[in-house]
Amino acid sequence: MPVISVITPLYNKGAYVAETIRSVLAQTVSDWEMIIVENGSTDDGPELVGQFLDSRIRLVDSVKRGPSAARNVGINLAAGEWLLFLDADDLIEKTYLERRLIAGSVDAFAKVVAGPWQEFHDTEPSRRALRYPAAWKQDTKRLEAAAFAYAPWALHAAIVRRSHVFPSRLWNEKLDALPSEDCAFWYPIIHDASVIWSEDNGALYRKHRCNSRDEIVKNLELGFRACSGTIAANEEFLAKMGKQPSPEQAATVVRVLRRIWMRAIRENLAVVGAVGSEIRRWLKKTSYRDLRMVACRLLFTELRRAPKAQAVTRLTIRKRIKFFPLLGMPFERCYRAITGRSSVAFEIRRRLNRLPDDAIVLQIGSNDGVSGDPLHELIVHHRKWRCVFVEPVPSVFANLQANYGIDSRFSFVRSAVNYGETAKFYYVDARVRQDIPHLPAFVEQFGSLDREHIVGYSNGILEPYIEELEVPGMSFQDLLAQQNLTDIHILHIDAEGYDWEILRQLDLEKIKPRLILFEHHHLSQADRVSSQQFLKPYYDITCHGGDFLCTLRPRWQS
Questions:
Q1: Is 0.85 surpassed by the pTM of this model?
Q2: Domain end among 339, 354, 382
C-alpha cells in the first residue's frame, strides 16, 4: 500500500502534464501512486500520459465532467494514507513529498500538513514568488476564519489524510461550473482538525492565462458567483453540524465581498446591488467588538451610494474626530479597511513631525500624480514642500504636469531612472479597455522597464496590448545632480518591479531620506530580501499592503 496518493485531474493540459508527471517521478520517496483522471480532454494529454510506463501511474476516466468530480474519482480509487491534489500544470520539487510526510509523522492525530509554495510564470520559470498560507503558524480558529471565504493555500501546498476526506468530506461537485472550487473543499477539511505547518516550499504553482484566477479578474460577476457559492457551501456544512458561522468568519466574508463591491462601484457594474445585499446580511453576523465591522455598519449605507459618497464620508469623519484626537487613528484605519484605500498616506502623516516645513520630496514613477498616489493630498496641502516628479511616458507625463499645474516648488523630469542609458519602456495600450472592460482602472497606466512584469500580471491577459517606447534614462546620482538635491526627506519609488534597481543606487553614507516608500509587491523574493537588508541598518521597516514604508531611526537624523 502506498504512503501517499497523488490525484491529478486532466483536461486539455497536454502542454504541461508530462512535466508534472516527471516532477512526481523525481521524488526522493518512492512509496507513492499517481492517479490521473481523464476528464474529457480534446488534446494529446491522455496519449502523453500513456507514454509513462511506471506501474505507479494510473490513467482512469471520469464519467462526470469537472475538476471536483474527477478528484472524487481519484479519492475513491486511492490507497494511500495521505492524499495530494496536484493539478496537471503544477509541479513539486523532488524533496516535497518526503518533507511533507516527515512533518505529518510528528503528530499521529494531524489531519493536514500545509506550508508555503512558490508561484512562477510560463515565460520566466526561474523567477519565483514565495507565498505563505493564510493564518500561517497561527491557531486553528484564525485559520478557519480565513478559510471560510477563500482557499487558505495553493491546492498542492498541503497534504491531507485520506481517512479524513473519505467519505464525508469529498469535493463539492455542484461548484464545478465555477472557478476556485477548492475554496469549498478546504474549509470542511480544516474545521476542528489538527493542522501541522511545514517550512518546505516545494510546491510550484504555475501562473498562465488559463488559471481560474484570471477568469475572476476578467469577469467580476463570475467572481462574485464563485465567492458566494463557496461561502454558501461552507455555511451549509456548518448548518449540517448544527453550527453558525462565527463573528470572525463573518468579518472575513465582509472583507472579501468589500473588495468585489468596491470594484463594482468603480466600474459601474450591475452586480453592485447583489454584492451590497450580501455584505449587509453578513454584517449582522459580525461582532460589535470588531471595530472595523462596527465602523463598516455605520458607514456602509452612505458608502454604497456612489464613489463620490466616499469622499463626503471621509471629510465628515475628519471634521468629527478632530474633537476626539485619540479616536482619529482607529477611525482612519477603519475607514481605509472598509474602502480598500491604502493606509500609507495616513502612516506618513503620523510621521510628519520628523520632517521640516520645507521638506524635499523625490517621487520616481509618479504616474499621473493622482491615481493611487499616497502622497498627492500631502503634497497639495503642504505648500512649502519642494517636489521632484519623475515619469518616463510622454502621455502620462503630460497628465502629471496638468494635474499639479505650474508651481515654482514643482520640478518635472521626463526620464527613466536606470544606469544612464536610453531604455525600452513597456506600457499597456488604451484599447485594452475596449476589449476587456472589467479590468481595474490602473491598468491603463501600467508601465515598466521590465516587459515580463506586465506579462505576468493576471496570467498574461495584457500581453497582446503591450506597447514599446524608447525613453531617456539617467542614473540616480545624475538625477540628484541635475536637480541640485543634497538632501531628500521623502523618497517614493513606484517602478513596477524595478524599485530595487533604483533603490540600490542610493548612497546612504551621503543621503539618508527621513522616509522611504517603495513597492515590494512586484519584486522577486531575492530582491525583496536584498532591499530590506540594504535599509535595515538605518531604518525601521513596516509593511503596508504591497509597500514598504521605511522610517529613519532618530540616531541617524542630523
A1: no
A2: 339
